[in-house]
Amino acid sequence: MHLELITIIVEEYDSAIEFFVGTLGFDLIENSPSFTNDGRPKRWVVVRPPAAATGILLAQADGDRQRDAVGDQVAGRVGFFLRVSDFVGMYRRMVSAGVKFVTEPRTEPYGQVAVFLDIAGNRWDLLGPAEPASA
Questions:
Q1: How far apart are CA 43 and CA 2, in angstroms?
Q2: Which of 11, 71, 102, 114 is least enclosed by beta carbons within 10 angstroms?
């Protein structure tokens, strides 16, 4: 058993794809035409980190309730966690790409962490291994 997909509600498909694929380096798994339950056109867009099992369904907001949830899907908390092996390299890449960090990098017992905002405004932890102890 594994968690296959989670959904992030976004304002627009293409800018969300550019953020997750172009900026974060995720793979675009699927980008197919689809339909809403009542027959209106939409897209089925799935991205995921390289070699990961769990993907993200990027769902364009449909209606006022969903538009209101864009960027606030977990009520202002950090709701998503991206673990990388090269924390410093990824942090620098993201900063140079214009990703907004809302905290400076810090070291916690579980490793390095910095909070950033995705294209929709949701809070994510960028997580990396603990820094090696200085000699």
A1: 24
A2: 102
Q: Which amino acid is at 55?
A: G
Measured CA to CA, the distance from residue 126 to residue 80 in angstroms comes to 9
Per residue in 102-130, pLDDT (tens digit) is 999 999 999 999 999 999 999 999 999 98
CA distance 46 to 30: 5
Q: Residues 60-106: pLDDT tens digits? A: 999 999 999 999 999 999 999 999 999 999 999 999 999 999 999 99
19/34 same-domain check: yes
CB within 8 Å of 2: residues ≥ 6 apart:
53, 54
Residue 12: which residues within 8 A CB-CB, separation 6 or more? 60
Same-domain check for residues 44 and 107: no
Choose the final residue of a domain: 45, 70, 95.
70
Q: Indicate the length of the chain as a whole number.
A: 135
